[in-house]
Write a structure and sequence with these properties.
The chain is of the alpha/beta class. 46% of the residues lie in helices and 11% in strands. The chain is built from 20 helices and 9 strands. α12 packs antiparallel against α16 and α13 crosses α15. The chain is globular and about 65 Å long.
């Protein structure tokens, strides 16, 4: 009996030690220099400069000339979007782009919020900083950084910004929103050196928030924004008050995940699986392997040889639009692959979709945005951040048509303080742009929960 008790105490002690050690783990990083050449001897320029998006007749004329010279290729009969962007429908999109889309008007829309640039680690970082026009008496605006992914941009959040900075419900929290462009995306300067990954972006965004005067703040992200904000929480868990994400593929599958894949279809309640979980996960070979292969060809290219295909996309606006907009079709709903128009305008307007494409076109950022895959995957799948849990309070919005479905059990393996897990009524991968109201509501509910818990302490 004594031996059994002793063994139990020892095992318990080891588990306690491992748990305590993992709790104390913080992601380590070192300052970098991503500008050309060597760092300047004069030190970093911390100036914050207003920035305005501009265009010109010459820029638009060059776009039209390139569009007019496109060489259409007929799609296969009865192929819809199963071979990629349907060529017949692409011609309709291109015709609208060439004859009806008003880029100058969209530039004015982009400039409705204040834009800025500041130099961090040798590169100019572009960001929006939107302050609320009115804050209820006795309360303060909560700082919130929102980070986009690929092939999106800061523009994805335009529908959400007014809902967060000027909420109509008097009981809602009011936010001061910062939306940066990941370096190499949009109007943020790209790294001039190899090795700029998600941890580097996270470190730079921490520096940005400190430069803006925020000692603590909330963070939200989807797609690459999920990983960047997750890294931010791992780097400085006392700075990030709460993390909200709508994408969380397992970074390091463990035993609970393996068991749930093997047994979850037969014993769903044992793993807390809902009907949606079962529907999206099983049969697992079809749902987790075959579907992933169907939608990940781009990732293999961008994680290995991004510059090759990127050069072609950077020269051809029609090629660029085809490459980007196909994602806004199939990543919004995989069923859209079977539609002649890819369901593209069922959730988005062509004006909004083409505005996002134009951000890539006018900034010439498609190659540098694709390199972000190379930098993150070239270091392997066993990077330090993949092994470190997140102990910052976390909220997860589970959209039913997300590219990769992640049940609650899997999310909790990484995010140990999961405060809210919401099964969203509708929406896919680009949820912030597709369903801004639902996303804003979930952010509100999550942060309200965190704030209430902080007040009780």
């Amino acid at each position: 009996m004594f031996t059994e008790v002793l063994v139990a105490v020892v095992i318990g002690g080891v588990i306690f030690f491992l748990v305590q050690r993992s709790r104390k783990q913080v992601l380590k990083t070192e300052d970098g220099w991503w500008g050309p050449g060597a760092p300047s001897e004069g030190g970093e320029d911390v100036t914050i400069k207003p920035f305005k998006i501009t265009t010109s007749d010459e820029e638009i004329e060059d776009l039209y000339r390139r569009i007019d010279q496109t060489r259409p290729v007929p799609s296969l009969e009865d192929s819809q979007f199963n071979y990629g962007f349907n060529s017949q429908y692409l011609q309709k999109v291109v015709s609208y782009w060439r004859n009806e889309f008003d880029w100058k008007r969209q530039v004015d829309k982009l400039n409705q919020y204040p834009h800025f640039k500041t130099n961090i680690e040798g590169i100019d970082i572009h960001y929006l900083h939107v302050k609320p026009k009115k804050v209820p008496e006795g309360s303060t605006a909560l700082p919130l950084i929102m980070v986009h992914g690929w092939p999106g941009s800061f523009y994805e959040f335009y529908g959400m910004i007014p809902l967060l900075t000027e909420p109509t419900d008097p009981h809602d929290l009011v936010f001061e929103v910062v939306c940066p462009s990941i370096p190499g995306y949009g109007f943020s300067e790209a790294s001039h050196k190899k090795g700029f990954d998600s941890v580097c972006a996270a470190r730079i965004f921490h520096k940005l928030m400190k430069r803006l005067g925020f000692q603590q703040f909330y963070a939200h992200g989807g797609d690459w924004g999920w990983l960047v904000t997750t890294n931010m929480a791992q780097l400085e868990p006392n700075t990030v008050k709460g993390l909200h994400v709508n994408f969380a593929p397992p970074s390091k599958p463990g035993l609970p995940m393996a068991l749930s894949i093997m047994l979850g279809r037969r014993f769903p309640k044992l793993f807390g699986f809902t009907d949606l979980d079962v529907q999206r996960l099983f049969p697992c070979v079809e749902k987790l392997v075959v579907e992933s292969i169907k939608e990940s060809g781009y990732m293999h290219i961008q994680a290995t040889k991004p510059d090759t295909v990127g050069r072609g996309l950077n020269d051809s606006p029609v090629g660029l639009a085809s490459y980007i907009l196909e994602k806004f079709s199939t990543w919004t709903s995989r069923d859209f692959r079977n539609l002649e128009d890819g369901g593209l305008t069922r959730k988005f307007s062509l004006d909004d979709l083409l505005t996002n494409v134009m951000i890539y076109w006018t900034s010439g950022c498609i190659i540098s945005s694709m390199r972000f895959y190379k930098e993150n995957f070239s270091q392997g799948l066993d990077q330090p951040h993949s092994k470190i849990p997140v102990y910052v309070p976390t909220g997860f919005a589970c959209f039913p048509n997300e590219l990769m479905h992640t049940p609650k059990l899997w999310v909790k393996q990484k995010y140990r303080k999961l405060v809210t897990f919401t099964h969203m009524a509708r929406g896919g991968h680009f949820a912030a742009m597709e369903e801004p109201q639902l996303m804003a509501e979930d952010i509100q509910n999550f942060i309200k929960t965190v704030e209430k818990k902080k007040k009780k302490k």
